Amino acid sequence: MTDTIQNEQKTWLIGVVGPCASGKSTLITGFELENIRFRHIAQEHSYVAAMWQRLTNPDFLIFLDASYHVTLQRRNLNWTMDEYQEQHRRLAHARIHADCYILTDDLSPVDVRNRVLEFLKSKGIAS
C-alpha cells in the first residue's frame, strides 16, 4: 500500500500539551479535520514526566506555550510564578519530544489553528 493510501485510511491522533491558559482547549474545541483526532493531555498536572506518552502516545505532539503574564490576562488564575514554573518543569519531557511548539502570547485562536494546520499539512496528514 502506498503512503498516500495509508494516510487516507489512518486516523491520526494529535496530542496537545502546555501550561494552563496556553490555548489547548480553545484550539481543540470545534477543530475538526477528517481522519484527525485531537486530545488534550493534562501533562502540566502530572508528576510523571512521560505521562503524555502513557495516556495517549500520539502520532504527533503539539506544545502550546504562554508566558506567565499572558496566562493571568487570559484567565482568572490565582497562581504564582513558582506554580507556573512548576507546570513548565512537569512539561519539560513533553516539550523536548514535541513535534510542534507554538508560543501563543501574541496569536489569536485563529492564528494558532492556522499554524497547527500548516504543521499538519507539512506532515502530509491534512489538506
Our measurement of the CA-to-CA distance between the termini, rounded to an integer number of angstroms, reads 20 Å
Largest sheet: 4 strands, parallel
Secondary structure: helix percent: 40-55%
What would the average pLDDT be, to the nearest integer? 89
Structural class: alpha/beta
The number of E-state strands comes to: 4
With strands numbered from the N-terminus, the spatial order across the biggest sheet is 2-1-3-4
Radius of gyration equals 15 Å
Order of helices and strands: HEHEHEHHEH
Strand content: 15-25%
Catalogue the unreliable spans: none
Count of structural domains: 1
User: Please, how many helices?
Assistant: 6
Please identify the oligomeric state.
single chain
Overall geometry comes to globular
Question: Can you tell me about this structure?
Answer:
The protein has helices at residues 3-9, 24-28, 51-55, 68-74, 81-97, 109-122, and strands at residues 12-17, 36-40, 60-65, 100-103. By secondary structure, it is of the alpha/beta class. It has one domain (29-122). The longest helix is centred in the C-terminal third of the chain and has 17 residues, at 81-97.
